[in-house]
């Protein structure tokens, strides 16, 4: 074999392009996570209020983003809605929007779950020292909920990062899309190039996601140890 | 009565269809200590929770320091700064240190000066021998220590009136005394107005100016502490005291 497959990575600007693709992926994920988490926390808090209309609307929002597959959401926002509403957004922005809304929906459920699992005594002893509703959430319920929910939040983040691999479907030049292009362009010269390209993509995803999921696991373990020690 | 702190008139409480408090009437004057006694399920917790708005009630009126309480969340939030309450379960906030737990009410609710409050809290902690635990988290404390801090957290708001709901019931026996002593000191030194639910009969007898005996949601006796423990009038009260080995 004249060419070893691994050299496909170093041919021309291939490596830089792949890393740039990864950067795009990372940017989209980061924006979606930050915006999504902030909105999600607010929605999660609102979902613990007793207003039935509010709860119903937010519930529908959650179920919509949970039931509809992300691919369909991406198509919907990239191909269908713009045509109906006559507004054009580049794929990167559509991706950020869709992912933010999705993260917000999932996060609202995580936050709500954590808030309602803070013991009722905590709420009552907060009220008993005269805290108002805002202070109760701000100083007592939310900080405790955050601690409970942190592992689930990190897991959500790893899922978001993984799901960014769908971005090529709406023509975002993410790492998978660029990888695919490189594979196709070099198919003749490097028949085994596909393994190396995807191998590298695998490695990049792994390097981001693995530490996160390790961290989530460790937090969960620590929390269990702590509650057992109570 | 000029120095009447709290007056309860014709209060009824239902949980859904279940009638748990029947036409409750009593008053408590400044500096008076009432122990609220009665068998399990008689409605003691429900009653004192009604007195600081943690439970709503169907009929009846509560008057606090001469003013009729209009029972809405905003009024209760104001009143709870004057009506301290400590519960059976240790419910310090686990995300905050001892000091932060205590400062929360005075500084965030009452917006008092942090340094001033801190000085005062130091004194209170010193008094109950817990100054060294100022920066500890609740999980590092024993049950008795937690309960003493919970009392101080309530006192830091300068309440006019304190409610205690079986604050020693989940403590190991050797921890009980320390907590009861604090309550006793409140009566002796600060002349604090209090309603105390307890199953420590010796303590109840010692501290009570008055006893309310509750059974199935009815106040069956409202009498002086001496009288109640010496000559309980109703059969139910006699039975109750017997069951407590008293
Ligand atoms: N949240 C609730 N929902 C429905 N019923 C309740 C609720 N809380 C209390 N009850 C009922 O109300 C009655 C009075 O209960 P409460 O807790 O006030 O009694 P207690 O005198 O404090 O008893 P204990 O000595 O066991 O603490 C009981 O029959 C109880 O089952
Ligand atoms: Mg009770």
From TrEMBL, chain B:
A Gene Ontology molecular function term for this protein is: ABC-type amino acid transporter activity
This protein's species is: Companilactobacillus tucceti DSM 20183
- SMART domains named among the record's database cross-references: AAA
Its name, as the record gives it, is Arginine ABC transporter, ATP-binding protein ArtM
Coiled-coil annotation reads 107-134
Record-annotated ABC transporter domain positions: 6-241
Any Pfam family hit: ABC_tran
The record's comment on protein family reads: Belongs to the ABC transporter superfamily.
Keyword list (alphabetical) reads: ATP-binding, Coiled coil, Nucleotide-binding, Transport
Classification via PROSITE patterns: ABC_TRANSPORTER_1, ABC_TRANSPORTER_2
């Amino acid at each position: 074999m004249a060419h070893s497959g691994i050299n496909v990575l170093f041919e021309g600007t291939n490596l830089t392009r792949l890393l740039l693709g990864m950067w795009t992926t990372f940017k989209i994920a980061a924006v979606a996570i930050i915006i999504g988490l902030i909105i999600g926390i607010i929605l999660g808090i609102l979902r613990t209020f007793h207003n039935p209309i509010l709860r119903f609307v937010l519930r529908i929002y959650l179920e919509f983003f949970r039931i509809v597959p992300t691919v369909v959401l991406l198509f919907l926002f990239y191909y269908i809605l713009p045509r109906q509403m006559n507004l054009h957004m580049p794929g990167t922005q559509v991706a950020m929007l869709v992912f933010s809304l999705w993260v917000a929906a999932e996060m609202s459920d995580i936050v709500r779950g954590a808030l309602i699992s803070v013991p009722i005594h905590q709420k009552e002893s907060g009220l008993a020292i005269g805290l108002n509703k805002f202070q109760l959430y701000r100083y007592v319920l939310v900080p405790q909920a955050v601690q409970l929910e942190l592992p689930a939040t990190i897991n959500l983040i790893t899922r978001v990062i993984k799901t960014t691999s769908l971005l090529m479907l709406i023509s975002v030049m993410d790492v998978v899309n660029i990888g695919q292009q490189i594979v196709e362009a070099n198919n003749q010269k490097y028949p085994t190039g596909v393994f190396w390209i995807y191998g590298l993509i695998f490695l990049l995803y792994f390097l981001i996601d693995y530490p996160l999921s390790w961290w989530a696991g460790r937090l969960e373990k620590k929390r269990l140890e702590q509650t057992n020690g109570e | 009565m000029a120095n009447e702190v709290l007056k309860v008139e014709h209060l009824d409480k239902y949980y859904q269809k279940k009638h748990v408090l029947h036409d409750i009437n009593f008053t408590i004057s400044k500096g008076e200590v009432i122990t609220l006694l009665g068998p399990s399920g008689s409605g003691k917790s429900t009653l004192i929770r009604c007195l600081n708005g943690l439970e709503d009630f169907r009929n009846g009126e509560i008057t606090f320091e001469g003013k009729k309480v209009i029972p809405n969340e905003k009024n209760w939030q104001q009143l709870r700064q004057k009506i301290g309450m400590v519960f059976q379960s240790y419910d310090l906030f686990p995300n905050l240190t001892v000091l932060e737990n205590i400062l929360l009410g005075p500084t965030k609710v009452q917006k008092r000066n942090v340094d001033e409050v801190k000085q005062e809290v130091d004194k209170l902690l010193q008094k109950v021998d817990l100054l060294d635990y100022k920066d500890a988290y609740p999980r590092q404390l024993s049950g008795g220590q937690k309960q003493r801090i919970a009392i101080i957290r309530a006192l830091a708001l300068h309440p006019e009136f304190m409610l205690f709901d079986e604050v020693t019931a989940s403590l190991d026996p050797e921890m009980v005394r320390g907590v009861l002593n604090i309550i006793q000191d409140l009566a002796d030194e600060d002349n604090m107005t209090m309603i105390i639910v307890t199953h420590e009969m010796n303590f109840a007898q010692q501290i009570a100016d008055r006893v309310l005996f509750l059974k199935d949601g009815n106040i069956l006796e409202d009498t002086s502490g001496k009288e109640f423990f010496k000559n309980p009038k109703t059969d139910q009260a006699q039975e109750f005291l017997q069951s407590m080995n008293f």
